[in-house]
Amino acid sequence: MEKTIGVLAVQGAFAEHADSLNKLNVKSIEIRQKSDLTKHHIDGIILPGGESTVMAKLLHDLNLFEVLKDSIVSGLPVLGTCAGLILLAKTIVSDQNVYLGTMDIVAKRNAYGRQLGSFQADGQFAGIGKIPMTFIRAPYIESVSENVEVLAKIDNHIVAAKQDNMIVTSFHPELSGDLSVHRFFLNLV
After folding, report:
1. pTM > 0.90
2. Catalytic site residue 82?
């Protein structure tokens, strides 16, 4: 049966994720409002990079927040990249806000600095091998609980992790042209 992946499309790099899925011959649906989540069957969802505070506000304004959180808690596979990582984190360093808060990680927002601190690196990703990683105003994961698997580190900072049905990356796999992280996510779906 063909898989359908929802891509949160309220803000951020959603078009690039849809393009990556298209290259893998996987159908995607843009999730812009609550009915997009409730009327379509989706097998997984991607929370893209962007501005996490804006995305969280829009999730509430569009009545998407609760249904999205409930779906993830109920086991819907999710890939959160950059801002998506922040949305899923249970704790954010120096920030009392918790957004979806479904993953047992402590995230450090803008850990690599502002836009000028953006960079590319090649790093080992568990289960995949060496891949290109694009970091743009990226967070990293400061710590994880014992039920979270660390998938990748750069300069001794955790930049990818997995817990149950959730995968997060600090970097933007949709910008590298390499489809391995999307394939890795699809294997979870």
Report:
1. yes
2. yes
